[in-house]
Amino acid sequence: MKIENYEEVIEKILPHLPEYLEEQEIDPTKLFCCINPAHDDKNPSAGVVPGEDVFHCFSCGASGNIFHAAHYLENKPLVGVGFITENLAYLAEKFGLELKQKPLTEEEIYELDTYRAYQNACDYLTMGNKPDLFDQAIRERDWSEDICKEYGVGSIGSYRDFREHMKDLGFTARFQDDVDLGRKEIFGPDRLVFTIKDPGGRAVGFASRNLEYKEDRSNGAKYINQKHTGVKCNIYRKSTRLYGLDCLLKKRKKGKQSVYIFEGYSDVITAAQHGVKNTVGLGGTAFSLDQLFLLKQYNLYDIILCLDGDEAGQNRIESILDTTLAGHKDLRVHIIMIPNGKDPDEFIREEGVEEFKKLRKWTAFEWRLSRFAEDEDEEVICKNMIPLIVNETSYIAQEKMCEVLAKATGISIKAIQSELERLQNIRAAEKARERQNITDKMVNLIQRDPSQIEFVLQDALNDLYNLANKYDEDNFSEQSCLSLVRSRREYEETKDGSFSGFVLGQDLKRLENALAGDWKKDVWFCLGGNPNAGKTSFLCKMAYEIARHKKENDALVIYHSIDDTAEQLIPKFVSIAEGSRDLTLNQVMDPNYYLRTGHGDELLEKRDMGYNIFESLIDDGRIILRDANNGNSLSYADAQIRHFRNKYPNRNIVYILDNFHKLHDFGGGGDERVRFKKVSNMMKNLATKHHIAVITTIEYRKTQGGRKATNDDISETKQIEYDANIIAHLHNEVHEKGDDASKFHTALVDGAPVRMPIIELSIGKNKVSGFKSKLWFEFYPDYSDFKNIDESIILAKEAEAEENTGTKYERPGERNSLFG
């Protein structure tokens, strides 16, 4: 579905948040319990932000608009086609808004037909006439018709009737075959068919069990899984699906919730029939990284592996621990061993669900320990298990593991800890020796050819990073790389041609439009301006907007200031986050002074709101502040980026530096032009090597007579002009000309009108979108905030100044004008 009035409808839906919450029996006029399913909020700590169409939880930091609320409360999708068809369209209809659809392409029509065909097939399987074999099968398993409908379990009375029914709905025999709906081994009266759905509940695939299968005779495979839905439109993608996840999300409880991972479809159905619905099924596939990331996407970090109790099932658990789950220390993993080689389906039906709930949940370490034979030598056990303790980075977890191992083997905990320390010392010595080898190699190469120092240093940094990975179990595995490739491929194939740059919010909308290209990766953005032009405040505003638009940008901003301390920056971010332009920096820094001068509790409420919003962004890993006290070199920046890239491998990372010309790299009294040429090369390399966006402020040589700076005025080196992808210049006419300035606006500060600057942003280089012209923003220095200003207002001010003073202003050419 393509929407012609997409942005218009979005803007009209957003203000309906209070009305929507009321429909969900939530009072938007006061604090309410957080609607984030991952937050078990006993004391109301969330509310609608005054004057904005968003809610915010001051406890867990969750925030969002009406679309996020629909996602949390009704499981409506936030991404992909589902966002439009199930979230946007749903809310538009609810509030009487018309969606104007653009004509669909043949590919889009085919995709919609595929989804429709699969849903119709699911409806036929679950609601049509069933054969006696099906009725007998669900009676034997004690499955109700309701649970079968909920989980998409069904069958067909006749393959021919099924085909004709699909034809009557408009799906030709050729189309059915092309999308894999024509297979008799899946759709037959002797088959128990399971519907695989996406997290939003759309049918995307089928699997079947042969109800006439016998172990002692050859009459086909017991289970048949669909592989794909055709080359033209593959909506299945088996390695990304988990059976029953859609039902789990609909029934999930508030707070952190564990999820049982079963092997088979029947395990999920039987558990659900007995009230255990926090389950998903692998359906006979390996547990992939895509499936793991899918669980993480829905805040499911507490995993209970409960595969079949036979040796094959236990071997699969071992493989999952060694591959898919290796290095994911944000997970809480337990394992259930089903007695007597049974699967969960058999055990629950025969022993009862209460006995199932009583089964011991082993930690991964305990489970590995239990795999040794009872008569295994204690020293052999310790020799194999202590290295696992060495790899654990938490000292608390190490101590618990030592206690478990001591209890299991009878060897004293002191002896185990001594052996642990010995292995750690060996490991540390090996690491130190390899580190020294890297250092010696670096020094030797620099002495032989000093001109290659920057490349030698970069190689040494790479070697040190690889060394750290070698001795850290959290290093990337080939499975992670494969998942990354698959995710990228799927992302490329599902892109809808929509906006690909960073969303910068309404206040910076014109800059967002001017950079309407993909600048989330491999881009260096330079921002220049004379002193008091507002560079730092503009950077803070950009950083905040990029960080707060989580859904659109999914970014982490590392804000590294060499000019100001982090303490000096915090009030700027707090005032910007509060958003009313009624909380000054001074009020943030010294609230008690203003309370004594007549300001009421409203000031504290605004200040608290600003701090809470800013703290929630930090807590959620959306923005990080660093200053010169932490580091003032590119090697420090590189280390920070590497650290957060490892922590958030799928997020866009934006490194912001204020300012470039105060970096200390390659210092030592030599030619500054040569030094900054090297630094420029390395800054560009930082962006491309890590596939991130880099934004830095830059300094100018002195400009004469109040002349506006251009790319030619960048201090020290022309190399920046070559290396940067975007170069923009800020000009503050009020600061330059004082009372003679023609471009200014008036705002109230503490009740009094104050003359404030209009900032001109001139884009001198733009390899992202090609736009090279001027934008203007109202600047509020007391709040470190900015707001778009229409070009027509500027033209009017310039015309008035020309008439009064005879001053002539440059006009942007028609080719470069973005908003005219």
Put the structure in a nutshell.
This protein has 820 residues and is an alpha/beta fold. Helix 19 (413-448) runs antiparallel to helix 20, helix 23 crosses helix 25 (566-578) and helix 25 (566-578) crosses helix 28 (601-619).
Major sheet details: 10 strands, mixed
Residues in helices, as a percent range = 40-55%
CATH class of the largest domain: Alpha Beta
Oligomer: single chain
Radius of gyration, whole Å: 31 Å
- Proportion of β residues? 5-15%
How would you describe the shape? globular
CATH superfamily of the largest domain: P-loop containing nucleotide triphosphate hydrolases
Return the average pLDDT rounded to an integer: 85
Low-confidence spans: 473-491, 811-820
Number of helices: 33
Write structural notes for this entry.
There is one protein chain. With 820 residues, the protein is α/β, with parallel strands linked by helices. The protein contains 33 helices and 24 strands. Helix 23 (535-548) packs across helix 25. The two termini are 31 Å apart.
